[in-house]
Amino acid sequence: MRLVLVGPPGAGKGTQAEFIASTLSVPKISTGDIFRANVSQGTPLGLEAKRYMDSGGLVPDEVTINMVRDRLAEPDAADGFLLDGFPRTVPQATALDKMLADAGAALDLVLELVVDNDEVIRRLSGRRTCHNCGKIWHVEFDPPTKEGVCDRCNGSLYQRDDDKPETIAERLRVYERDTAPLADYYGAQNKLVGIDATGPVEDVTARAIDALRSYGG
After folding, report:
1. Which of 68, 66, 6 is nearest to 34 (CA)?
2. Mean pLDDT, rounded, for 180-206
3. Whole-model pTM above 0.85?
């Protein structure tokens, strides 16, 4: 199957992408992984992307799209894949449809992890990161034994700027503006399936797999 996974920050896309891709025996392809691979290998696209990143600018769609095209052309993606983090906008979705059509293929389904903004803020703002070892705890879901101290290494815990409520709210605004319109885009193609992303990780995975099976996956 050829799948795309979308959802707001804090919806658990990375975790669910791993489980779903493993269950379906298809590669999980994230834009973060693609960028890191191209940059570390010094490919022409990687060098171009690094130039933008080093200057603090956004990598143009054309560069990102070409990286995705190269990755989807690799042998392990021939029979299916799960895309996580791409497309992020309707123009990127249009480009993805075209690149697949040019290869004689098409997306089968788009899974949207659905979670309300209050739950996203609760999930992300509760995270605490260890200064020393980088382990991430959560004040509600996975608290350390002693508040503010890492169980693993006794390092002090802190709240990253990305996990502060005001930053999360801005990330959600950007998502609503840029990425949420994908729901209408794929809905018009009858390819969108919403998955309730609340509750334990394994329950969300089970809902996603059940949805895929009901669509012939």
Report:
1. 68
2. 94
3. yes
